[in-house]
Design goal:
It is built from 10 helices and 4 strands; from the N terminus they run ββααββαααααααα. The chain is α+β, with helices and mostly antiparallel strands and 207 residues long. A 4-stranded antiparallel β-sheet has the order 2-1-3-4, with helices on both faces.
């Protein structure tokens, strides 16, 4: 399990068995389950990070303040590290606007660029923007697939059609994922869908 000693404002969901018992900020979830469940139930509660699907370790012993103090990050070292990082970034940060640079291309590539509407500079900017958007989409897909996979492995490894559901997830087939998880416990199924929402491009969801 991953530890959660850096931040206490994660958004997460708590499960008791296959039932979701609380969802929201980590503080809200911990407060809710600690106030509503018995000690024997608390040791069976699993809390999952809504952005990564990873379990969050929580020690419920003591008061709510005791729990949150264990979850909170050490402030001094983190603040100093962050400040140094920000200083470094500021020192090397270019001014906003057009930044010139050197591009090396073959003659036939230059000819093609110059023939495009707007010329070489406009075409290069468009190509870079398109590549960046495609890269961001692929990154979103990978993160969503990984989050759903981590949760499914932890909570649904013994469920029927588990392997088929994983293959559908990584194949980008939302319809098949729905099909293979149809008989799963409702809260588990719905949370998988929530984590996997970014794994399917909009045009594929409509097909």
């Amino acid at each position: 399990m991953s530890t959660s000693n850096e931040q206490t404002h994660y958004y997460c969901t708590a499960f008791l068995g296959v039932e979701a018992v609380a969802s929201g900020s980590l503080q809200h979830v911990v407060t809710t389950v600690k106030g509503a469940l018995s000690e024997s139930e608390l040791v069976r509660v699993l809390i999952f990070d809504d952005s990564t699907g990873k379990p969050i370790d929580v020690d419920y012993h003591g008061t709510a303040d005791d729990v949150f103090s264990r979850l909170a990050a050490p402030s001094g070292e983190s603040s100093a590290t962050e400040a140094n990082s920000q200083t470094t970034r500021r020192a090397g940060r270019p001014k906003l606007g057009v930044v010139s640079g050197e591009v090396t291309l073959l003659p036939r590539q230059w000819e093609w660029l110059k023939a495009q509407p707007g010329g070489a500079s406009v075409t290069l900017r468009k190509l870079v923007d398109e590549a960046r958007r495609a890269g961001e989409q692929q990154s979103t897909i990978r993160k969503s697939q990984e989050a759903a996979y981590v949760f499914m492995t932890a909570m649904a490894g013994d469920f029927s059609h588990y392997e088929e559901a994983l293959r559908a997830l990584y194949a980008g087939n939302a319809e098949r994922l729905d099909q293979y998880t149809q008989d799963w416990a409702p809260d588990i199924r719905n949370y998988v869908k929530r984590l996997a929402a970014g794994a399917f491009p909009e045009d594929e969801k409509k097909n």
